[in-house]
Design brief:
hydrolase; seven-stranded parallel beta sheet; 25% helix; alpha/beta; membrane; three-stranded antiparallel beta sheet; elongated; Rossmann fold; Peptidase_S8_His-AS; Peptidase_S8/S53_dom_sf; 15% strand; transmembrane
Amino acid sequence: MARRCAAAALAAVLACAVPAGALAQETSFADPPPVDMSKPVPSSAIPDATHTQKTACVTDLPRDVDIKGAPWGQDRLQFDELRKFATGKNVTVAVIDTGVTSHQWLKGRVSGAGDYIQKGGDGLSDCDGHGTVVAGIIAAKPPSDVGFRGIAPDARILSIRQSSTFFERETTDGGKEPAGTLATLASAIVRAVEQDADVVNMSVNRCRPSGPITEDEKVLQRALRFAHDKGVVLVTSAGNVNEDRCKESANGFDPNNPTNIVTPPWFDEYVLSVGAMDRNGDPAAFTVQGPWVGVSAPGTEITSLNPAGDGLANQRATANGDRAPIEGTSFAAPYVAGLAALVKERYPELTARQVMDRIKLTAAHPAAHGGRDNLVGYGMVNPVSALTAMIPAEQGVEPAVSEDVRMAMPPAVPEDLTPMRVALIGAGGGVLLLLVTLFVVHTVRRNRPELRSDPRGQA
């Protein structure tokens, strides 16, 4: 429960009291066990594994229109205002994904750092068409007549190809599984640190039923802690419903006992996980909730770089050949990774924890206890505020401490009728005086003939 109250910088504004009886049970898996750093950090070496391609790579869809307008998420996050404060210059964002193609609008700012799918690859091949879309949301820089652009258009992209649903490998029991494991993800994270990444975007997730931590998860946890301690900001997607065994978005009604565990988001002490919002400001129907969700960002109706050609794309081909919008928490995460790059440029002295807290603190908090809930975390990010707000904890101000203040009613005040009595007596006296006056005048007029009027008009 302690880390659900966030770090000191966040607690400076959002006091997080733990309700009585709310302490987590030993059987709760909302929080992973503490990391064991007595064991070595994973190696960044690419394992000698053979992957077989099972699906043809994505191809360029026929275009009915030329995509020029800015997507709704870009307008909502006020991209035009951001360039006044930062553009991501001299900041490197590692994209651990399906690879990133050398798109014309990333020209000169994208480099490959390794391929865990194909031997000898450099990370600049994207068969799935996923990593290029992610990289575009972070750092695309089209010409001025194109409305779309990345949130950090001057950032550098470091591509590490670590996963693919288009390739598979044999398991030890003779089965098949998609390329990319928790072990290779851990190695890719260490590789990104060794290549001097400032921010890492991981739009990859593993979902499983709740239970004790596994050995592969322990390896990943050590890699995340290693990168976090090196000052690298780690951003991951929260996960999508019906993907990788995540079958329900509710994830249980008890926030301390989720029915599913999603990694890397589970290790939210070191990573900032991102849920998806739609253009109406509601949580996207597919976003997986959990006690580890940090913030949210646009995740529907996505426009980004075309992974199979030049220009842009806002649709993908489905398995049956139809077209569908590009959407998912995978594409909400790079908005936040790009924002982290902007914060790193503007405030280079901040630690990874302080960057994460700044993004959480300045988000549009939901109306929930502590300013967060399990669906959207601390809410939709607010990039302008994240780049301009004064954070008390960064200035050495002690965090606020919540107190149990009991409500007490004031003592009863006896009713005092004196003012009413005085008012009634005064009013009664005035009426009596008026009646006496009228009686006297009437009597005087009747007893003095000269005051009576003559019927002919003479006194």
